[in-house]
Design brief:
Elements (H helix, E strand, L loop, with lengths): L2 H25 L2 H15 L3 H4 L4 H23 L12 H6 L3 H11 L2 H12 L4 H8 L3 H18 L1 H5 L6
Helix pairs in contact: 1-2, 1-4, 2-4, 4-8, 7-8, 7-9, 8-9
Amino acid sequence: MDPGDADFEAFVAARGARLLRVAWLLTGDAHLAEDLLQSTLAKVWPKWSRISGDRPEAYVRKALVHLHASWWRRRWRGELSYADVPDAAGAVDAYAHVDLEQSLAAAVRALPVRQRAVVVLRYFEDLSVQDTAAALGCSPGTVKSQSSRALRSLRALLPERVDGGDRCG
């Protein structure tokens, strides 16, 4: 067995769950998240000997986000899903019981792909502005502006959670 194989396996064992969480937050679907992570790992595997010493998690996370964006662009061109649209008659009742986590996850999935990536990396993965910029291949200013737009959109998508009685403190 090549020493690189063992390093890669150790990395996946140590960081796989965290990377799967990022993939799930980006896709909103457990099966798509697994596919996204597996495809990402398959792409970085041949380059592992070059990246393993220099912040491998950041490299893999960046590859994951970029591959997700690529998948999203491809899907956007080809298909539109109306499965999540409630019927008009039961719309109010259907969402009356939805808890904050489900509402937030749906709202994050409704964001444009770039804003979703910023929110996932900044607020779910707790990366700094600089680390998020590095992961997305953009400037820190872009991360800040995308973050601001995303939070504004989330406030609009979740007004009852922001303005209502569900606030903490």
